[in-house]
Amino acid sequence: MEQTVPKMLRKTAADFPEIAAQMSKNKEGVFEPVTYRELYTLALDFAAGLLNLQVKRGEPVGLISDNRKEWFQADMGIMAIGAVDVPRGCDATLIDLETILSFTECRVCIAENSAQVHKIVSLKEKLPALKTLITFDEPTEDALEATKAAGFALLTFNDIIKNGQTWRIEHKGEVEAELEKGQWNDLACIIFTSGTTGTPKGVELTHGNFLTQLDELQERIMINPGERALSVLPVWHVFEREVEYVIAIQAGTLCYSKPIGSILLADFLKVNPTLLPAVPRVFEAVYDGILRKMRKTGGIVYAMFKFFVSVAIAHSRMQRKMFNQNPCFTRYYTAAWWIAYLIPWLLLWPLKLLGNVLVFRKIKAMLGTNFRAGIAGGGAYPKNIDEFFWAIGVNVVEGYGLTETAPVISVRPIAAPIFGNVGSPIRGVKARIVDPEDGYVLKRGQFGAIQISGGTVMRGYYKRPDLTQKVMTVDGWFDTGDLGLMTIHDEIVIKGRKKDTIVLRGGENVEPVPIEQKLNESRYIKQAVVVGQDQRYLGALILVDEDEIKNYAAENGIQYESYEALLASEDILKLYDAEINSLVAPKNGFKMFERVNKFALITKPFEVGVELSAKQEIMRYRLAEIYKTQIEQIFTEE
User: Fold this and answer.
1) pTM of the predicted model, to two decimals?
2) Beta strands of 507-623 (E only): which ranges?
3) Which of 238, 495, 525, 597 has the most CB within a 10 Å radius?
């Protein structure tokens, strides 16, 4: 295994120089290729351009951009000279940018376009270290004027490439020498996981963290040289970043698209990909699109669709039990399942084949002729979506990981997936389940907290040893904050989270505490608890301030028979809706995905040992059990 990520790219470029590494659309919407030889050369030219700007080994470089071919080229160039990229997407708020760029003291920052330039320039007084901006797109006149007025140097990506080409002629072999110095434990990037409305946590990831995964991931997520994968996710998230490295080490081709239904399906037809790595919401959108189309068609077509899907699901459930394709926590009862299911399984087989001919084949045709698998990561993959695609013969494998584990802990192998879990830990990574209260290691099948050790675990949180200490055990294991159990074959089954961070289905990480603190400012709210793990949107449990609500009712002449009837009244529900929407809003620094869509009012005060820990902290995983009915109602689609 190579010692750094750019050295890995160098090997792929040497072995497969003329295979397309990247494909992206030109202005006419036609996909154009960049070969591995060209990609490697561009990375070295960009690296040389940075050396020309006096960028040093170990120096952080801001990288504020969404996914595009230049991102990967710049990323490789930064790491090639031992510098450290600090990535974020274009949806970064001013507070995000201020925190990230000031905390890391970036002297050089890449900004995708003029809009990002303006945002960074507006923070000039708070970023004393920043001197140079680099844009991927050509800057507008007002962006040029703004940077000049702020005293920043402004260069384009093409400027850096040209300067780097000249520098390499004048300093022969020096870029290559810098690349050669790179070591396994060198810092590769600093990724900030929490929004700046929470505690900023810069995860320090080394080249070794990324490369550890590439050993076995090539076996579980296979792609042949020249086969294509659609790239649709924000690359500053570590999941997409590692996906791109998995593709590159196998000389696959990255094709840049967007997670928008019409664009994605059109690009499927254009590039005929083998793999689609995406967050669960993308697969959910494909599923919803299929259902909408069938319902709209109606009649016998819709009736046939429902019938054959139900047959396929029933047949798949039997088959999984008969062929040991479900998670197992004690021992298999294969013979018993064969006795029980053999005849109905055989009877349903012809109907499933017919369903494939009449219905499922048309659905699969939308994914092209080369499609091998989807990889779902960044959030929980809903069971009903998992079951649907499994039944109709579209392979989607679920993976598990965190930014702190760079990110892959486990993933179902494409060749032999087991339903309802996220696979066993990859080589170089170990997992264990411990009691959430006392930390004792539990046996297979016992529910507890998931802890990880191995080569993918981060170096630590940037400049925050206190936060690092909180998530590392005394014997060197990383506490994921997730809850689950392990099968007899070490496959991990996720059951929830005990830590605060909420991950939505779109992969967005939300820190609930700042939202809760804002909601608690309302005089009508005693305590707010934000919920939404693995859901499309956020909801909230609202502990009502009884005195204030009764006062409000008296002041506004609201008549009611009982307190419960008052809380269920339209007047009170409208009051809370207005309070929540006013407090959790962009004007207060919150992003769109941090908005609380629905809520449930509760009246029982929280107690120590029930909802609260001895430290008076909310035990979120307990609330999920106590208020299960209310939470389900919040996320019931109307």
Assistant:
1) 0.86
2) 509-510, 525-531, 538-544, 596-602
3) 238
